[in-house]
């Protein structure tokens, strides 16, 4: 998901100068950040200062920030999209996964700490 080009999602960059819109656009399009900023500056000066600033702020508010961790699978992308759209749902999914893992650990602890679990016999037999 980290490659540049038109198949990648368009995000605001987390390390941009103001809101990261231009850095995100240059990362996605694979062009120099300088040229993106120069094109915007030229268009803003030619159209009037305020329309360019308003468009920039609207785009910054509409775009999602880039994921902190690299998105490697479709499941990662689904989680990121659900998190940016509905944080309560994402937290519910995380809690559900945590509870599932906690239940598995408790079952493993119950088996290992059971009185009938014979450690010496298991260690000697290699199982």
The fraction of residues assigned to DSSP E strands is under 5%
Q: Encode the helix/strand succession as letters.
A: HHHHHH
Sheet with most strands: none
How many domains comprise the coordinates? 2
Total of DSSP H or I helical runs spanning 4+ residues: 6
- Average pLDDT, rounded to a whole number, is 80
From the spread of the alpha carbons, the general shape counts as: elongated
Low-confidence stretches: 1-6
| Number of beta-strand segments | 0
How would you describe this protein?
It is elongated and about 85 Å long. The protein is about 65% helix and about 0% strand. It has helices spanning about 20-30, 35-45, 50-60, 75-85, 85-110, 120-125. It has two domains: about 1-70, no CATH class; about 85-125. It has about 130 residues and is mainly alpha-helical.
Short description:
The protein is an all-alpha fold. The protein contains 6 helices and no strands.
What is the strand and helix layout of this fold?
Elements: H1 21-29, H2 33-47, H3 49-62, H4 74-85, H5 87-112, H6 119-125
Core attributes:
mainly alpha, 2 domains, 6 helices
């Amino acid at each position: 998901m980290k490659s540049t080009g038109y198949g990648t999602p368009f995000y605001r960059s987390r390390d941009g100068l103001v809101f990261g819109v231009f850095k995100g656009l240059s990362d996605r399009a694979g062009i120099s950040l300088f040229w993106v900023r120069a094109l915007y500056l030229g268009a803003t000066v030619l159209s009037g200062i305020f329309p360019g600033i308003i468009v920039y702020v609207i785009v910054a508010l509409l775009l999602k920030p880039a994921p902190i961790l690299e998105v490697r699978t479709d499941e990662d992308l689904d989680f990121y999209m659900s998190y940016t759209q509905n944080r309560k749902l994402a937290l519910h999914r995380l809690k559900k996964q945590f509870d599932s893992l906690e239940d598995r650990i408790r079952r493993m602890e119950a088996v290992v700490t059971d009185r009938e679990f014979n450690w010496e016999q298991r260690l000697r037999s290699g199982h």
